[in-house]
Fold:
Amino acid sequence: MIGSLRGKLAAKAPPQLLLEVGGVGYEIEAPMSTFYRLPPLGQETRLLTHLVVREDAHVLYGFASEEERMLFRNLLKVSNVGPKIALALLSGMSVEGFAACVRNQDVTTLTKVPGIGRKTAERLVVEMRDRLDGMAAALVAQDAPRGAGGAASAESEAFGALVALGYKPQEATRLLKAVGEGAYSTEELIRRALQGAARE
Structure:
């Protein structure tokens, strides 16, 4: 899997761009939110990527931020939502705007995005509610300071790991609170939280 690319921006023709990396030109499809943040042609840029393998093609999608890529990946898990609709959503609204629509069950705003009918919008609201909480948790864990790492860092990393293991954010918080106070490492926090869950 190609996780990111850094290279010279050779061409821009939304939704496609061409990124030259070490003499190889990568054709990448990107949402408009990413295009707005691209440098002028000939300048170097870095994009986070997601590769979609189909029977007839391998398509590389590029994103300016981890939030965009994470939302794109979560949208692909919703039934009847493919890369084209996911790109349209990211082009039509910000990650924060989409999250607000889901929280407020604002189906009307979602249907204004090309390719999204009422049924798909309703499905997005239902299926993305818990996923958005998981995304927020994963981003918090990613942004947590590493290295010397105080208790807050270990706790946020443990929280992100529990969410990645399939626990809902509320459950992960409850399991970590049940561990209690102590100077635990991330691994120890996860182990104790899982032991607590097994005893329930």
Observations:
- The chain has three domains: 4-63, 66-139, 144-199.
- Confidence is low (pLDDT under 50) at residues 143-151.
- Residues 144-199 form a domain with the Helicase, Ruva Protein; domain 3 fold (CATH 1.10.8.10).
- The CA atoms of residues 117 and 128 lie 16 Å apart.
